[in-house]
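Justification of resources, computational component.

The compute hours requested in this renewal are based largely on the per-chain cost of generating structure records like the one below. Each record pairs the submitted sequence with a full structure-token output. That output is archived, and it is also reused by downstream analysis tasks.
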Amino acid sequence: MAPRLLLPEPAAAAFRRQADACARMGSPFTAALCAAIANAGLPDGAVRDALSGWPGIADNTGDAIPLRLTGALHRLVLDSLDAALAAIYPSQAEGSDGLIDAVHRAVLVHEAFILDFLKSPPQTNEVGRSALLYPAFAWLAARLPSDFEILEIGASAGLNQNFDRYAIDYGAWQAGDPASPVRISCDWRSAPPGALHFPEFSVIARYASDIEPVAISTQAERTRLRSYVWPDQADRLARLDAALDLAARFPPRVERAAAADWLEDRLSRPHAAPHRVLMHTVMWQYLPGAERTRAETLIREHGRTARPQTPFSWLRFEADASSPGGGILVTTWSGAPDDGITHCLGRGDFHGRWIEWRG
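The structure output for this chain reads:
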């Protein structure tokens, strides 16, 4: 076996940060895996070289490199391509020699596969985030027309396009379709539902884009989505499978396009419903700086054309400078004096496990 070499510090630090995040989010196995790679390094070879020199890794803009590698390893297990690796998945033997030995062997044996897998950004398409979207749409419906046209950027497979077709249990209240096979439990950390005004709403049209959409009509792409789910989180894997099955009945429409290019085209078209809502979840940080600026310019320019009968809202759940979780933000335009002002509706867990609603 090739000698183990520690990763250079920027890369090792990225794996340590990911280990901490996985531990906080309930995946001790993936935390142990990332920590073991940070502490023991990888075999000398092309995979280690690729991770060590990945652009942006030194300033923490390295395209979620640890999740690319852990996704590749999980894919090997899901496709039954490495029995030794599968034998320790999922394992609670944090940092054990068995864990790191199996990883090092897999990196050498499957080098070409892993190098190719690393080229693609992680695509979890976490449907638990639908629990954060639902009350935000209800909040919009209480203030503006409640028939929606949804536009989503960075949509992956588009599974969150079906957010209103899932059964969501907040503990104190329920939302969505109670008969849905997709069931999401989300801890509602706020006022009781009697103190809230959440009206009914309708989604009339749904459109989406992604730089590299996941074609869930193929088993290979469905497995790719599963590979990015942490292997010791069986409930998330089951929920993803149910969402994929539901998507076969209600197929999301995801066009292949860069976010800003797609927005320029889609925002120029007539509304398909009175209230147009642009939404995205945990993707904004991955856009190159110039594209982020261009996308926001297009969004705000479109907002200035909104009127009371045809409002435009920008709803997003993204990581920010605060913690825990991410912020649920909305900006609305309807020709009102407060157009373009962003409201923080609350905070939520990145997998939708809880929501702190402020409204």
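The chain has twelve helices and 14 strands. The chain has a mean pLDDT of 93.
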